[in-house]
What does this fold into?
Amino acid sequence: MRLMIVTGGDEAYAPFVADLALSLNQCRKKLTFAMGCLDYGLLPETRERLKKQFDTIAKPAWPFRPHAQFDNQIQARAFATRPFLPDLFPGYDAYAWIDADSVVQDLRALVLLATSCGNGLAGVVPTVDRSYRHQSQNVEWVFERNRMAFGADTARQMMNSPYIASGVVAASAASPLWKKWQSRFQVALDRWDGPRLCDQAVLNHVVYFEDLPHHKLPSFCNWICHLALPFADVKRGALVEPSYPFDPIYIVANSFNDKRMTRKIPRLDGGHIEAALTFAGLRHAMIASRAP
It folds into this structure.
């Protein structure tokens, strides 16, 4: 299977794009896949540097009908273009999106993403785990995104299902996900009621209301850190689930608002490490923790 893994960002997000690429390129030593980057406002010199890490860089335009509120917003364009990966990077059997503020710790995540796309299916990751704490502000955030897209009645119905985060999503090129996501997005845009665009609300509608053939992947394929901060296993040099038996996390999502902040991460053997939730930051902190 020819798999294309895509991420993207603007100039402010370029350090995260490059950091995610480092973690992905570690996996390419043992697994074959292509890497694509969506340019949402990179400086020319930054784009040139990233060309050394990615196979293809594309600069997408706003993909829907003109929208007075969103079509000139960089973040809105980033959300709106995710359903168009097969159009932006044609010629692959399957596509996976991974947010730039993520760290791929284990290539088994990419294997699961690829195999979940077999037979025209898609792979999504619900925000469900025994360690997660969904506080009231998290629930309100989800409801409001759903309401802006589909109105209060539909939003209340959507709250009966576990929310799917779009930071990691994969689908076969033949999956109906892409066309369904595109068409439902346009419908939502035509009546959007609120200040922020949200691709996740549309994705959840497609998965739960439109009979999308899909696999639900485990939480360690997109670990949402603000719902449960991982533990650090210094011996293994990796972040792990914060509940017994402390299994490895495959993809870490830095879902905090302040993504550059250094975090105090509890160690399995006591104490803590201090690290930014990036591939380079975690690697440095793990190495420093093992030093005599």
